Amino acid sequence: MCGWHRERSDGAPLRVALFGAIFFQAMPLLWGGAELWAEDEDDETSDEGPGDSSEEGTDQPSEAPKTVSTSIEVLGRALSADARRRPESAFTVPIDESVEPTASVADVLLRVPGATVRRTGGPLDPSFVSIRGASSRQTAVFVDGVPLNNFGASVVDLSELALGAFDRIEVYRGYSPSHLGGFAIGGAVDLVSDPYRTPPPRLEVSYGSWQTRRVALSAAAPIPVAGGSGHVRAHVTYQGTAGSFPSFSNNGTLYDDTDDVTLPRGNNQRDQLTGWLSMSANAGRVEFRLLDLPTWSDGGEPGAYYAQSKEARSRVVQNLLHGRVRILAAPGVQIAAGVGWRVRSDLYQDLLGEVGVGNQDQRNQVHSIDIDVSGRFDPLVWLQLRPSARVHILLHRGTDHLPTTTRGPWHRRAGGQFAVDGRLLPAGDTLEIRGSLGALILDTRTEGEASSDLLVDVLPGVAVAARPVPWMTLRGSVARAVRAPTFVELYGDRGSIVGNPSLRPERATQADGGIGLEFDQHPDVVGSVEVGGYLRDTRDLIVLVPNSARVGVPQNIGRALVGGVETHGELRAGPFEGRVALTANLGSRILEGESGTVGNRVPHVPLWQVSASLAAVLGSFVRLQWSFVGLGGTFDSPSNFFEQSTRPLHDLHLRVQPHRVSPWVALDVRNLFNTFVGTSYRNPLRPSVDDVAPVALQDFRGQPLPGRSLMVTLGWTPGARQ
Predict the structure, then answer these.
(1) Distance CA 289, CA 283 (A)
(2) Beta carbons of 294 and 274 less than 8 angstroms apart
(3) Spatial distance between the Cα atoms of 590 and 602, rounded to a whole number of angstroms
(4) Are 192 and 146 contacting, i.e. CB atoms less than 8 angstroms apart?
(5) Model confidence over 605-620: pLDDT tens digits?
(6) Cβ-contact 664, 627 below 8 angstroms
(7) What is residue 491's three-state secondary structure?
(8) How far apart are CA 613 and CA 630, in angstroms?
């Protein structure tokens, strides 16, 4: 306990400094934002930068009607018509009033066909996204085009990202452009903000179950720029929770139900502060943008549900700073360059050996430097070329403070990515071809000595969309991808993972295809349907293989095949609107393995996943919406011994606003039916419906998921128009 109080005291100045920096960045915008926004209210959407202001895949969602009677509409909007017709299998979710104020990035991605989110528990606990059965490390995550896990160097914790700072989330499933993780096996997720949008200031205060609290502040304003225009946007979110949700525990005895008990989740408290600042300016042919994303998080590490900890804790302090310049060199010619630096320091303290193996006081430092240069050339109306180059340097060092301070060696990874993307319109709007050809070079070293093979690979990809009639799009793509082992996989982390320096890179070939239909011929009936399938063949897939009750070793298991189907539909008929999104990962299995896993399904990939949502809107005053996410058929490990319980989760959201310019109040109910206990076969080798035992619902084995929760939010957007 002394260690807990000592660390909290030592970290206070850092927390105060970080909070002060974010607070003073945003406060001037809050006080002046309403007046400045009113002056700029005629430009509600966005000013464009020089030339073509948007990158690929930045289509804006259509604006909702300003006056409506009673209607039914979906939670969020589907892709715009242009985005739905792209050759890539892409999906866009706008972040607007249809998204619950307390929703997280993970909550939104759960509703995207093909995306799966794994969580370690309740509010503010880590969560990770995977696409089409790929692991979280195989999924590239970006913030405004800036990579957070370049070349699969790490896994991105979605709980550290503030959803309210962004305007939309773009998801590329499978093939993606080179500047957005084109070599990522699973695809890419990009959290996007419009640098030239000036929304009115926004303040939200939330409180709910398990002492969960939240304060969010957003503001924006135009700024004077000589010979042009500029904008500044800022967002600050504080979140905290006791995290003491009821959790079921069988005390580690699956075959004995006499000791089953439901207890509050212990040592799960957390406080988190996230900021986001964007400054942009354009003058003539030059555009500049600066991003800054600070994060601070501190809380307990609860451990497994059957052996909860009391003192283990973790802390994260990080900042991402990125600047970009884009120049319109000539008509149809753009050149852009960017440089970013991310520094991260995290603490993991388990002085009593409650979670990992042995006592730990581990500190890690990460420095990530990213430099990219790209161009865009439109030599002909039907041809666009986009060459790009990216250099990435990653430094990582761990320091162990038990029994004495021991600084580990610096692990270094240097990588280069060189690619050319092309867009071809040989038959006008009826046929579109997008292709990429890239080369990837990665070198991982420890203290100057090579600790893994040099990775050199050539990675092609192509996507085609045909539109034989205006209301139909036929889409298909094929691409190769690669991912090198991470530092954690190579060298271990926190005592629960033993490193394996002999790991080989993962390589995959993937293909998908589908058809999209749009119905908008009648003014009272508008809808769309998309049906598609995908197949991915991965060689040397890396999975964590347990070698004892609490220790695992990452290993290359051989060859894995994952395939599935995805459907999405949206319908509006008169006063009714709706959408149902369905996803099924079918027949995911390991064809060859080095650990006796021949014929088994790939771990952590659900066999099926379904999401649906529906909202009833009364004018602009009342919104009631329901959403559902269900999944099942997920195994914990390559052995396929323990299958997770089927998980049907329902959410409700009610928002009431007496007047467009008045404050509003919202009620969010998560897991409406309080589903946090499922069933498991006592003997997985001989499953029988008459021989089952209750188990806690969980994504990560031993980490229970919460039951029903309620959150009340009071919000105000001063200066908003009727």
Answers:
(1) 12
(2) yes
(3) 6
(4) no
(5) 888 888 888 878 777 6
(6) no
(7) helix
(8) 12
3-state helix, strand, coil in the chain (%, to 5): 10, 55, 35
Which tokens is 18 given?
Answer: 């970080």
Nearest to 396 by CA among 370, 363, 371, 372: 363
Closest Cα to residue 184, out of 436, 362, 513? 436
Q: What is the mean pLDDT of residues 81-100?
A: 79
Q: Give the integer Cα–Cα distance in Å for 51 and 463.
A: 26
- Are 187 and 131 spatial neighbours (Cβ–Cβ below 8 Å)? yes
Main-chain phi, psi angles of 431, to 5 degrees: -145, 125
What are the structure tokens assigned to 302, written together? Answer: 């609860």
The pair of three-digit structure tokens given for residue 396, joined into one six-digit string: 């990582």
Distance CA 318, CA 423 (A): 37
Q: CB 643: neighbour CB atoms within 10 A?
A: 17
Whether the Cβ atoms of residue 606 and residue 634 lie closer than 8 Å to each other:
yes
CA distance 692 to 684: 10
Region 520-543: what's the mean pLDDT? 84
CA-based nearest residue to 170, from 282, 82, 294: 82
Tokens linked to 449: 């000595």
Nearest to 117 by CA among 699, 706, 710: 699
> Amino acid identity, residue 177?
P
Sheet holding 542-546, edge to edge: 492-493, 497-498, 552-556, 542-546
- Distances from the Cα of 616 to the Cαs of 67, 69, 71, 434, in angstroms? 14, 10, 6, 39
Q: Which CATH class is domain 2-43+70-716?
A: mainly beta
**According to DSSP H, which parts of 135-290 are helical?**
none
What percentage of the chain exceeds 90 in pLDDT? Answer: 34
Half-sphere exposure in the Cβ direction for 363 (13 Å, CA) = 11
Alpha-helical (H) ranges within 278-336 are none
**Neighbouring residues of 358: CB distance < 8 A, sequence distance ≥ 6:** 495
Q: How far apart are CA 292 and CA 276, in angstroms?
A: 6
From first CA to last CA, the distance across the chain in angstroms is 54
Instruction: Give tens-digit pLDDT for 533-552.
Output: 999 999 998 887 776 656 77
Amino acid at 527: G
What residues does each domain of the chain span?
A: 2-43+70-716
Burial code (b: 16+ CB inside 10 Å, e: under 16) for 286-323 equals ebbbebbbbbbbbbbbbbbbbebbebbbbbbbbbbbbe
pTM: 0.84
